[in-house]
Amino acid sequence: MSANPKHNAEDYIRMYRQMVRIRAFEDNANQLYLSAKMPGLTHMYTGQEAVAVGICEALTAEDKITSTHRGHGHCVAKGAEFKEMFCELLGKEEGYCRGKGGSMHIADQGNGNLGANAIVGGSMGIATGSALSAKRLGNGQVTVCFFGDGATAQGLWYEVMNMAALWKLPVIYACENNGYSEYTKTAEIAAGSLTARAESFGIEAFKVDGQDVLAVNKITTELVERCRKGEGPFFLELQTYRYHGHHVGDINREYYRSKDEEADWKESRDPIKNFGKWLSEQKILTEEELGAVDSEVAAEAKAAVDYALEAPYPNAAEVDMHVFAGVEHALDYLAGGRA
Amino acid sequence: MTREITLSKAVNEAIAEEMRRDPTIFLIGEDVAEAGTPFKVLSGLVEEFGTDRVIDTPISEPGFMGMAVGAAMTGSRPIVDLMFGDFIYLVMDQLCNQAAKTHYMSGGKLKVPLVLRTNMGATRRSAAQHSQSLQAIVAHIPGLKVAMPSSAYEAKGLLKTAIRDDNPVVIFEDKLMYNDKAPVPEEEYLIPFGKANIKRAGRDITLVATSSMVQVAEAAAKILEADGISAEVIDPRTIVPLDEETILNSVRKTSRAIVIDEGHQNYGVTAEIASRISEKAFYHLDAPVIRMGAMDVPVPFSPALEDLTVPTAAKVVENARKICRGELVHAA
């Protein structure tokens, strides 16, 4: 674990807490699924917490991110509240998207999260366009495009990397390589090296241990500053691991991934456990204080889940609202009624 | 003051006027800058606005379409130039899964104010991948607005409205009409969406026609007039939203309707409009509503074949005469 001298204890504690918050959010979301209280499916971010937190802690609230179907971690790390997130997962009116997006489309524009995306690689254009917009408008914002190793098989990435490199756009392509493209090993879907693909466009590429929050934060902080100086784009390959299956229903998965492998990552490379150990060794937090963070977060998550379970669903009249900006009810409008 | 200008010039003027008004607008697409597009529609814009706002891209339609969506979500108002309407198939994910749904999926928090300008129209001897009229495919998707200008006047007024709209709007310009002239005011004007234009008043039959098919309908109406058949020609101007009221009021008066659009007939724009007329003005009808779309074949290259695939004034006249005589166009 590499310490970044620029950070003070407060930053470390916040990073720890944010990682714990993601884990707690996901544990609760998984329980909601298992107890049939959540509509649909969801994709757990558990195990990858250091990536989202290390990166988002290097960004300002104005900087943008685009997220993926496995997006709860990005959303929490970018500053979202549990209450609105659980409401969204349960399809409730007070959710970030008024229950219209759900787990796979959760967006939190107020904190610069342009949204999760249920099309693998679907947000690569959006992130690059956000960077183009920032460059044109001169607002200094940097955009981070999160995607998984599976998305590197999408052609869109090569189109937008080409343009981002040609036009020196302030975008960081952050590939969370968790080793699996849905139910297939990454080695079976990706030829050659991912960093070499970015490098072929003249984009500087870095391979980082995605289980080490400080390492992720350190490199991202540097790249964000360089993006602001017009030295972007960049590519990060973050080696990480998803503890659950592709989605919460992917439980019997030994045909593509062994239990031994899963146990090994959880035991020796858990980002929260290892960072907690480091905090304690550095005497930044005692074991008791670490435990207190965990309990506080658990209580926060429980309160948010309880609230969301009781929160009202959207009114039926909402169904054709927000189809068009500036149009109250789309069905009237489509039949020729005025907005 | 009104002067006659080409449709191409009208589009160019609309973009230039809006870009002068709003610095967040930029143009993006293939060969939009120095080349001004293969149709020269955008000539001169890069000289005025520079390459920062008139952005030439590599041949990467999904890439620049996706970037336009992201730019629109973050404070810019991009105008995307898609060189041929046929390339819509290349940008479907970014247009239909991303742009069209973002406002809804975010519960109204994120807006995607972008314009996708593209073209349509056969008989340019360009064969099956450069001749399609794909407006129905886009009009099918909730969250997209679709405009189909029928002249230089409409092209300018609808495009300015599209650029100011806070939603993704797709505009189909008929590529065979770029050099057609029409009277266009010097003064600024906008044409609202969802307001059809009654191009010609009539009593006996309603011809609802889009884009260049308005010219076909007007030519047919002139011929029919000599027969003593008075045809009303309606140009919806936008197919999403669709001004049902103007169309239904016309049909309630004439009792007969033919709907003409250059997209394929099966599951097309003509089917949608004909169906709405049948559902909502059935008891006013004296005859089945007739659809006239492009023949349901890929557009052939040979002129001898291609000309058979598009609706013509002669065919409109033939169908109109039949239904005004009480004959069926299609055997019952």
Please describe what this structure looks like:
- The complex is a heterodimer of chains A (339) and B (332).
- In chain A, helix 5 (124-137) packs parallel to helix 6 (155-166).
- Chain A is α/β, with parallel strands linked by helices.
- Chain A has helices spanning 9-34, 49-56, 72-77, 82-89, 124-137, 155-166, 186-189, 194-199, 213-228, 259-268, 271-281, 287-310, 330-334, and strands at residues 64-66, 143-148, 171-177, 180-181, 184-185, 204-209, 234-239.
- Helices cover 44% and strands 9% of the residues of chain A.
- By secondary structure, chain B is an alpha/beta fold.
- Chain B folds into 2 domains: 2-185, Rossmann fold; 197-324, 3-Layer(aba) Sandwich (Rossmann fold), CATH 3.40.50.
- Chain B has helices at 7-21, 45-49, 61-73, 92-105, 135-139, 152-164, 213-226, 244-254, 269-280, 303-306, 313-324, and strands at 2-6, 25-29, 54-56, 77-81, 115-120, 145-147, 169-174, 181-185, 197-200, 205-209, 231-235, 238-240, 257-264, 290-294.
- Chain B has a 7-stranded mixed β-sheet, sandwiched between helices. In chain B, strands 9-11-10-13-14 form a 5-stranded mixed β-sheet, with helices on both faces.
- Chain B is globular, with a radius of gyration of 20 Å.
- Chain B starts with a strand and ends in an 8-residue tail after the last helix.
- The model of chain B has no long low-confidence stretch (mean pLDDT 97).
- The interface between A and B is large, with 54 and 52 residues.
Characteristics:
heterodimer; A: 339 residues; Rossmann fold; B: 332 residues; alpha/beta; 2 domains; 7-stranded mixed β-sheet; 11 helices
